[in-house]
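Please predict the structure of the following assembly.
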Amino acid sequence: MTLAERAYLPAIFQGLSITMRHFFMKKATIRYPEETRPFSPIFRGLHVLKRDEQGRERCTACGLCAVACPAEAITMVAGERKKGEEGLYREEKYAVSYEINMLRCIFCGLCEEACPKAAVYLQPDKMAPPRFERDEFIYGKDRLVEPVDPDARSGRGIQLTPEQAEALRNKMNQQPVAAR
Amino acid sequence: MEIPVLGWQAIVILVVFGVSLLIATYSTYAERVVAAFLQDRVGPDRAGPYGLLQPLADAVKMFTKEEFFPGGANRALFVFGPCLAMTTALMSSAVIPFGNILQFGSNVFFLQGIEVNIGMLWVFGVVSLGVYGIMIGGWASNNKFSLLGAIRAASQNISYELAMGLSLIAVLMISGTLSLREITLQQSVAGEWHFWNIVKQPLGFIIFLVCAFAETNRTPFDLPECETELVGGYHTEYSSMKLGLFLFAEYVNIFVASAVMSVIYFGGFNFPFQYELRDWLVAHQDWSLLAAQNLITILGTLLLFGKIFFFIFFFMWVRWTLPRFRYDQLMRLGWTILIPLSMVNILITGGLILAGVIK
């Protein structure tokens, strides 16, 4: 080594200049609670069961999502649509109960791909929120179905009788307290 | 109004202690901010505006942690160790001249704890006592890692103290006095332009700087607390405020080392064109000579603190730049390079004094 190298000092000053440059550099930090980073365009988050353009549930309880699910997180019970419920369910068969176990779900999106009715859908902007109890991770229809205002009556779309609106309102209000 | 000399000095000493502690407190905050900035992070910014209450939060944490005494430890010495470290760190700040003279009427106040003509010796004596705190703390823990860390700290401090003393002897040859106040005043005399000692002693300053890093156990010489080899080093077994005292003493030591460096090599409370400023104030602004002189003193004190803050920053800057030495490299640097180099520095200084180049 040359004398300059053995004296260390030039190398030390070089290192000091490098760190000093970093002192004034723009910080990479995102101050999380105040600032959030945009999600990736291919992000798959919390599931939602979509309604169609008339406000009716799209899901026909065919079970393809449950079959496609590699983690076996989806269970459902199918039922027949009664007369007068045409404004609630799109097909004659519908899901009486539809549950996704978020502890098992790996957010692979295969259910979304398997669904022939474009009903189940992984939101690109919403995470599954953290919970304290295990049973709070089982999401039923109360938390999965896209909410709709029971009193909404658009001209071309949803037509609910007052009784149906009441039933729907009760259903939506029946969410377990801890789930909020 | 007659203030007894001792009363005034007592106030100054208390203020100096308080300022030392305050600066040490905020050094812990500054260390985290500097570390974060040098690594492109943000640093503490949650406790209070800009995270300024972070030291307070740290203190609350330290005070509320469990007091732990390891089995087989010597309890009295275990408590005495951090106390000694803290006491010696604070004591050495008493002789540092933080400013020139403030004069009100016939009352003259020295902005210095104790003006003694052995100031430099006092600093050295007290600093060398500081290693007892570490040594006792490490030994009383009854832990082999702590003892190893303490032994490392002791041998490192002793070997670097030699080079430090020798590098200062060259300064003392120029100044001819041990009084820190005298050394400061010699670095600027009214009417003629005197350079700071750094110009006369560049090599001596570098040696002193390296030794100051080793004396305060800062990176790249922080072998006593090398966590990969020794867990936490000499303070492995310490918890709560006793650990806090050890860490705090390190920051007080950094403050004192920065102050000593500023005073000895960087002109202390002197600043360029101070006499020109005073004369201009008196001549053109109708200030009385006393008021102008007091203003110069206050400005000088502020600038001295500026120099001190720069050195504290420098300590942190180096810490987050350089990796630590291996222990044998550290010892070789101390004994085979720095000590001979400081002796050569003494010879060169003596030669230059004889030749009349510097005085």
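Residues 5-255+264-355 of chain B form one domain. Residues 27 and 94 of chain B are 19 Å apart (CA to CA).
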